[in-house]
Amino acid sequence: MIDTQTTPFELNIAEQPDALRHLADSASTELGSLTARSWGRIVITGMGSSHYAGLSTWRRLIDLGHSAWVIDSGELLDNEALITRETLLIVTSQSGASGEVVELLERRRQGRISPALVVGVADDDDSPLAKAADLFLPLHSGPEATVSTKSYLNTLGVHRLLRAAFGAEDTDQIPRHELYDAAAAVQTVIDSVDLTACATTSGGRCIPNLAFIGAGDSAGTALFAALITKESAKIDAEGYVGGQFRHGPFELAGDGLTVMIFSPGRKTPDAGLRRLATDLLETGTHVVVVGDAGSDASSNVPIGGTTDLAFAAASSVVPQLFAVDLARANGVVPGAFVHGSKITSTI
Is pTM beyond 0.85 here? Predict the structure, then answer.
């Protein structure tokens, strides 16, 4: 019999609304140093879900006319010439101690790289990143037992603060309101979404093939979903951005494949993702659509909230809940590490 006792992973999922409200209530950080001068380039980096959380910030910076790059810290170590003396380097690491980030900071200490300013985003204010950053932005997400939950949503919140600063928005009022809105939307998902039936085949076995697809601001959500599914449920799952799925992986379509598609935003549906959902359904694929009630789907998950941050945060909770159902269907403890650990310190 599978153990259905509430796990630390599930407890962390339930704590996410409070973590978002705690971030909203925490003292704001002065961000004038980010906009007081122009930068030769802005480089956004991190690993895993910390990296994915920065994708929307990169998109916004491009929209604002900045020369911006988003690159994971491992690739940045292999291409350190990207960091010049005129570079603003934004480093996100929920632990503040991942191996690649620590190595990046050590290269700065040695003088191998010389960014003009380093912004650190992390939860632990005693971490290597917090101590080495010129400007530290705390997540205020609190301790986390296993797979990223609270820390990911609060990272989305802090990156929203960064986008507000670059967009000359009111960084004291707008993000705070949006964080409360996000907390409410997340709570609604936790209270109402049940994807248990989607986690198994008609024969009661765990689904064999799984893909997550997003576009625009939901690209990070899809990549995050695949990552935590592998960590939490020990099931092979892949994340795809936009039309990537049509370039090869579509050959997996049909009975036995489940695809979760994330709408990029609250107001404007993505025509390409809608066509993909329809085409997948025609092959017999089980299609779960998150956040687009007008899309064809086997199962449709509504997402509330009045802001883009709320939409992104609440959408990100859906695969967390799904991962719990998948883990139990797969006969494993949801969120329990077998080979890895909370902090990946080895490069």
Answer: yes
